[in-house]
Structure formats: structure tokens, C-alpha cells
Design brief:
With about 250 residues, the chain is of the alpha/beta class. It contains nine helices and seven strands, in the order H-E-E-H-E-H-H-E-H-H-E-H-E-H-H-E.
Length: about 250
């Protein structure tokens, strides 16, 4: 029988703990496939966060190092400087990167560290109970904004990609989504480019991936994909915000 599809060699056989409909698993798949296709899996080191992806080291078939909450860019900096021949990437959620770890990501970008960052934005704190995140949308209800995020007292959503793109030392910053097959394919191309930029020694690259959180959004998996398309895309436009190389 002809094999139509097989699990990437970049992933282990460990069952994932993510909630039904969560798109972390899809993003893992894309990253794993890229590492295999680039031929760098054996020399890749992942730095995992605190958050829903805290056990990502169990799923990727490469070496990994756990970091304290928000400190993955700092740990990745140390790993890359000690092992400049390795491919080093962080995998972080919006609470980890855009709140607790904001200082770390800004200064890693400002230094132009030659690492790749996969930034998963689902507009909420997932693992800790559905609290409002820096990326939560105005009017979005969370466990800490039960009436909806109020701009007057809680500010507007933080657009990380646009902010980091203004930093001189960043090389590639883009925002993608995985809510449909065409967008999923585009996301994989962006992830591949981000890793190629590191292999070419061009410095800091970040791929922001819009993702779902059916459990904390209180929606079904299908409804979550629809909510992302209707509400997150206008707030977080897709596209490339910085590319020192140009092209695809």
C-alpha cells in the first residue's frame, strides 16, 4: 500500500497533552518537518517555555533545554554562543514571550542574536487559567477581564511583530496563521525561511503564529478557527514586517 502521509521524523511518538482543537500540534508538525527538510534536526537545540508548550521537549526529536518563565531568549542566547554551529530556536506563547519575557525578547532582538523564535499567539494565557494576555483583544472576555478587555483601564493589544520589526538588528519578522490549509502552507514557508536566515548567520528571526485556544475561549475547535479568522486577523494582520534578505 502506498504511503500517503507519515508523521515527521522530527517528532517523537509521545502523545501530546494539548486540548482537542488546539493548534500547537499543527505548529509542532510544521517546525519538525522544516528541521528534517533542511537536514538540521541532528544539530538542533530547542529551548522550551513555561506555558502550554512546557512539555514540547517531549515531542520534538531533538535536544532541548527548559527555561524559566519568559527567559527562553536568554537561555537560547547562551546556548547559541557556546554552540554557534548548532541550530537554536525557542518556542514561546504570548504570556511567556509578550508579558513575563518581554525584556528578554526585546534585548535578544536588539543584540541580533542568531536564533529563531517561534511565537505562538492565541490572545490568552492558556495553561494558567485563561487570564488576559498582552495580546488579548479589546472586548475579549477572560478570567481577569470578565466584562471584556477595556482599553481605558487595560490598554490595547500588543503587536509584538510590528514592534520587533523596528529594531535595527532583527533580520526577519513575520506573522502567519494556521486556521486554514493555505495559511498553514504559508506558515511552513515562513518557518523554513526563519531557520534559513539563522543558517546563513543573518541574526534574529521571529515567526509569530496566530493560534487557537478552544478551552479558554469557550468554543468548539471549528468555532475557534472561525473566531480567529473573524477577530484576530483584523487585529493582527498577516504579513512580513522585516526581511533584510527580501523575497520568499
Amino acid at each position: 500500500m502506498k504511503t500517503v502521509y507519515a508523521k515527521s521524523l522530527g517528532l517523537t511518538s509521545t502523545p501530546m497533552h494539548y486540548c482537542p482543537g488546539c493548534t500547537h500540534g499543527i505548529i509542532h508538525k510544521l517546525v519538525a518537518e522544516v528541521l528534517v527538510e533542511l537536514g538540521v534536526l541532528e544539530k538542533t537545540i530547542l529551548v522550551t517555555p513555561v506555558g502550554c508548550a512546557v512539555f514540547a521537549y517531549e515531542y520534538f526529536n531533538c535536544d532541548a533545554q527548559e527555561a524559566a518563565h519568559g527567559r527562553a531568549p536568554a537561555v537560547a542566547t547562551g546556548v547559541k554562543r557556546v554552540h554557534p554551529d548548532k541550530v537554536v530556536f525557542t518556542y514561546q506563547g504570548d504570556g511567556d514571550l509578550a508579558s513575563i519575557g518581554m525584556t528578554e525578547i526585546v534585548h535578544a532582538a536588539a543584540r541580533g542574536e542568531n536564533i529563531t523564535v517561534i511565537f505562538v499567539n492565541n490572545a490568552i494565557y492558556g495553561m494558567t487559567g485563561g487570564q488576559m494576555a498582552p495580546t488579548s483583544l479589546p472586548g475579549q472576555r477572560t478570567t481577569t477581564s470578565t466584562l471584556g478587555r477595556d482599553r481605558a483601564t487595560q490598554g490595547a493589544s500588543l503587536r509584538v511583530s510590528e514592534m520587533l520589526a523596528t529594531i535595527e538588528a532583527t533580520s526577519f519578522v513575520t506573522r502567519v496563521s494556521v486556521h486554514s490549509i493555505p495559511r498553514l502552507n504559508a506558515a511552513k514557508r515562513a518557518i523554513a525561511k526563519a531557520f534559513r536566515m539563522q543558517l546563513e548567520g543573518r541574526g534574529f528571526s521571529l515567526v509569530e503564529v496566530l493560534s487557537t485556544c478552544p478551552t479558554n475561549w469557550g468554543l468548539s475547535p471549528v468555532e475557534s478557527l472561525q473566531w480567529l479568522e473573524k477577530n484576530m486577523l483584523p487585529a493582527f494582520p498577516l504579513g512580513v514586517f522585516k526581511d533584510v534578505e527580501g523575497g520568499d
